[in-house]
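Re: weekly structure request thread

Next one in the queue (252 aa):
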Amino acid sequence: MNGSFRSNSLTLSRYLATPAGRTGPLPGLILCHGFPIGPIDARQSAGTFPELIDRAANELGWVAMTFNFRGCGTSEGDFSLQGWVDDLRAAIDHLIEVASPSSIWLVGTSTGGSIATCVAADDPRVKGAALLSPRADFDDWAAQPRRFLEHAREIGAIRTPGFPRNFDDWAREFRRFRPVDASRRFAPRPLLVLHGDDDESVPTADARQLVEAHGGAELRLINGAGHRLRHDPRAVAVLLGWLDRQRVLASD
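Done, posted below.
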């Protein structure tokens, strides 16, 4: 990571890339990682994302940024859904402050895509979004919040002893934020939903729910692909092609 910004009282790490040799306002892109799968993933969350950010900047002409949500990578803090929403809002403010983009677009993988939907729905600065393997809700976490809390501790997304101070408030956030409802509010802004048809973590039904709620979203199912679409070159090609089209439309 090549920098940082503040979210509430926390310092979050980020990686920012700007295209060489381009002048004038550029569209801005923020890439959001998902919830870590295991302890190594929690420490290395978004570890391969700078490569994708560089491609978006250098090949497509975006000013592009990725960052670590609280509890992941070298960012401070402990995981909470409200906290991640706050972090993405702070990331948008930070990109605007340091790069003055002409518009903001969000890309998110898994939980990061779901968070992006929730934030984008209520922020008119966000002009479009692309979601990779997103979940339509957090009902499975809400059904067994204590088990999920222990899991988050085990993988290192929650590090502070005694966190959260109020367990009930922390758990209620899993019902409060509903990506499928946010997708409806996000319309008619452009939305791309990419999902592997062999996803072992999030069923394709979630993708279809988000697309149906939006009413005009583009759904692309990747044949034989699993959950981690960031590592599937077909999915990355679809994503970069879509972003290139949006950049052209944004500059019209």
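Strands lie at 3-7, 10-17, 27-32, 63-67, 103-109, 126-132, 191-196, 218-222. Residues 3-251 form a domain with the Rossmann fold fold (CATH 3.40.50.1820).
Next request, please.
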